[in-house]
Amino acid sequence: MIPADEVLDELRAMRAGDLPTHGGRTLAYVYDSGLSGVDELAADAHALASSANGLDPTAFPSLLRMENEVVATAAALLGGGPSTVGTVTSGGTESCLLAVQAARDARPDLPRPRMVLADTAHAAFHKAAHYFGVEPVTVPVDPSTFRADPAAMTAAIDDSTVLVVVSAPSYAHGVVDPVPPIAAAAAERGVRCHVDACIGGWILPHFRRLGVSLPDFDLAVPGVTSLSVDLHKYAYCPKGTSVLLHASADVRRPQFFASAAWPGYTMLNSTLQSTRSGGPLAAAWAVLRHLGDDGYARLAERTLAAVRTLRAGIEDIPGLRVLGDPEATLLAVTAADDDLDVFTVADEMTERGWYLQPQFGFVASPPNLHLTVTAANHGGEPELLADLTAAVAAARAAGPIRLAPELVTAITALDPDTLTPDQFAGLLTAAGLDGVSTPRRMAEVNAMLAVAPPRLRERLLVEFLGALFTPARR
């Protein structure tokens, strides 16, 4: 048996190589309130309930009470009425999956159900389509604003449509889709409308109170039947908590699963999971109780100030521009000319202790860097902007990544359906990687992935992921 303190020391040593989760330097994946004591409160609450099992709310009534209170808090913030119900899930992806599954199962008469979504909708909906056999009908957005086009979305609805999806905001560009006309069109055809507010749901209402002009997007909009909001984003709760709200119990009912077709207990689930720890729910409940509406209002004010300062500062850096007109907390920053490679800028920022998330070009959206701004960024804007200015200068001096024409030809000639391990290994070698690893500088790898068609890029990254998650043999 290894002593507990040695195990924890080993874990701390491993964590030292990760991206920082606090301090505002990792502008993706993590959400930092910048407040002291919040993490400790969440950890203590998690520990108190981690052994409780959310599978059976009658056995652990504390979890039932906490879930109902969390759902009620979310509904009050997001336009819910007396009939609004909801479920706490493990994250935004599960919330989106369940919204699609419930819409499909509400229409068992349709042999080939379809779902209409803007091409900026989160990839979680394509995952749901893949899992649940729902055909995704993707509709191009406005190429300048990156918002969903109400007329085009309406035209895509047909007799097989079970769900229409809109975003508040969309992840890639941080813009809010025009929810009211799209929800109205869906309602006219008797189709459900889901609002993906996983990122924006907990902060946009506070932005509106601070004077930000925002389109209506929540459950108060006629025709909106469900909405997802993540607590582990701008509610600053630990990871593993999201809320899926439904306009009524009738809308939610197909989400539930029950099975008595075996000799054990009758299985009854409200989510994709059966057994689920009460820890994440308790942690979220505690943080929501602790911060309260006033606390979230102050955090939103700090976040809005950081967003405005960073956006203005980025637009003053020669060679950079912000895509669209983001209303939320997400900024997509692209190069203003062909002599600047944004993937190299990302590497240069990594060297300076920042993580900016690369996004590949897609339809009208060019390659860009994605910044998720949180309350922790307030006060650190000058340092980030100074380092970004220096990173742009260094990237311009280095010049854009130029792949050899024969390498581009070799990449684009690959067939994602017949890709072999040897071909994948050859690409790693061409990228300068000695086997599968996570190199610090990714510009050349990203340049190679950027020239690959989307399906091939998916296949290459699946191979990469599979190789990463291969245990070392002892």
UniProtKB/TrEMBL annotation:
Cofactors named for this entry: pyridoxal 5'-phosphate
Membrane spanning residue stretches: none
Superkingdom of this protein's organism: Bacteria
Single Gene Ontology MF annotation: transaminase activity
Key word Mitochondrion present: no
Keyword Protein transport appears in the UniProt entry: no
Protein family: Belongs to the group II decarboxylase family. Sphingosine-1-phosphate lyase subfamily.
Pfam families listed in its UniProt record: Pyridoxal_deC
Listed name of the protein: Aspartate aminotransferase family protein
InterPro entries: GrpII_AminoAcid_Decarb, PyrdxlP-dep_de-COase, PyrdxlP-dep_Trfase, PyrdxlP-dep_Trfase_major, PyrdxlP-dep_Trfase_small
Keyword terms of this UniProt record: Aminotransferase, Lyase, Pyridoxal phosphate, Transferase
Coiled coil: none
PANTHER family tied to this protein: PTHR42735, SPHINGOSINE-1-PHOSPHATE LYASE 1 (PTHR42735:SF6)
